[in-house]
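The data are quoted verbatim for completeness:
=====
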Amino acid sequence: MAPKGHERRLFLAFSLITLHIVISYGTSSPLNDVNALLKFKESLEDDNESLTSWGSSTFPCFGNKNNWVGIICSRGGSIWGLRLENMKLKGAIDVDSLTQLPRLRSVSFINNKFGGQLPDFRKLRPLKTIFLSHNNFEGTISPNAFEGMKRLRKVHLEYNKFSGEFPTSLTTLSKLVELRLEGNNFQGLLPDLKLSTSLHVFNVSNNQFQGPIPVSLAKFGASAFSGNKELCGPPLQICTQTINQNITTPPTPQLPKQSSLLEKPIPIIAIIFGVIIAMILAIMVIIMVLRSRGDRDNNFGPSSTTRAPRKSGTTDINHEDNDASVRSTTSVGGGRNKSENGKLTFIRDDIEKFDLPDLLKASAEILGSGCFGSSYKATLTNGNAVVVKRFKKMNNVGRDEFQEHMRRLGRLSHPNLLTLLAYYYRKEEKLFITKPMPKGSLAALLHGQARGKTTLDWPTRLKVIKGVVRGISYLYMELPVLVAPHGHLKSSNVLLNDSLDPVLSDYGLIPLINQESVQEMMVAYKSPEYFNNGRVTKKTDVWALGILIIEILTGKFPAAYLQQGSEVDMSSWVASVVDEGFDKNMGQIRNSEGEMGKLLQIGINCCETNIEKRLDIKEVCDRIEEVRERDNDDDFYSTCGSTEADVRSSRGMSDDFTLIIN
């Protein structure tokens, strides 16, 4: 009898588990997903026919790959996110149909033409991110619009036409990380967001908010509140009772009548005034001394009066400064002492800290000079080496705005991105501190003095291209607000580690570079769409990626990049180098010509002048991951930011579209 009872218990347990699985996953079958998304599509007006891939003939997801554009799939084949950006969509956002997607965690409709009231996202309570930036939504937002959405981490509503008071339900979200409301018509008082202790991105600039800034929000700096004429308090001007007659301020507590301060106010004021004058004079003297020292020390970098021969392997492939010199015993700071204003701000905690005087005393050699400035390899007194890159075209960026963007870049973590360790802010120049990459830049290995010393065969070049695409794809997931998350992709900004794995540098800089300089300096502003329409789009990085793919496969340097201040016609360069065939320095390519041709065609498609016909980054990623080393090699992989290993290796990734299953 015991065995039968045991069997019944096992059967009952198995039945309960089966029932749980059916309840949990039964509603997220592929057929249900198709019906839900097609119903959602019916509510949209798609002028560009961007959603033509949405059809009943295929399922939205095949494993972790998407068959339908704009769908983010999890490893289990469920729909994790919608990313319908830059598609000129309009109409209504049918939230009811999306409730049939139980695994949906992220929605992004950035830069479309949606209007009307804010959709009722409370029906999608498990959402973690909501991106509605750059649309035409309008009207007031209900105070309880986000009530009960306890998992919500990121809310981006900037640059719409919302009005009314701050939606108070946002103050109840304890996991909120990013909140952006700038560029709307919100008004009234700002509430305290003490509950959201993890909040590290906040911006309400260019609205009509009034009254004092809560203490919990003052840490975000003046740029987060600029454009609100009647806001006051740190970090803005001090609040007074006359700042707005419509705002009631608490009565000022009365001091005791016998207070000596009230009995003799004039002498006290005179003393205070005298102290302030003395402090101002002292500060002026200190500033004059510091300026005189700064002039003598000539800022950072080796002295211009001492030159040494360029070291082998340090050729600047951009040829933008042929006078770059190397002096292995030179101090990075040219002897500057500890009176330097400012300090290093470290972003990473897993490295040994050092301060600015340590960096100034370090011996340095110049690695190269580019359009932004020079890069140095500095060896500290403890033997550790870091790379210091100077930027002189960021002097229009305020300290608060710069630091906020640095925090955003500091949160990025991916094996194919160069990690920012620390930075230094000064109005005249900025310094980025990173780890050195032992193999230098891809440009130097393809075209410079290092060419031939390190062989870049076909498998290595394929590995480099796949790594670059993964890094770009990650940037697009983590920096969706930036119109071109990289913006400066070229071979000299692809660095290589000991294993010849690619590491991208100079990414995410568009918001920091002076607008009067971007056209001449940044690759994104040399794209066909900029010259034709005066704008950069989400597909601009794809165009630069196509140029890079062709450069890697042909070994030809796109010299037209060096032209400044004039239109760069890269289409003729693409046609000419493609006709010349593959780089002969790749070595043995037998039985690989078919796959190489497939990759070359992807590069050509990325260089499509017509933006509407150009591939998007997701399509490029999927197609490149399918390219193999040999024509008949079936043992290929697809790791475009989708496997568990990639997620673990990118611990710094936020939850926007990353493949996390709760």
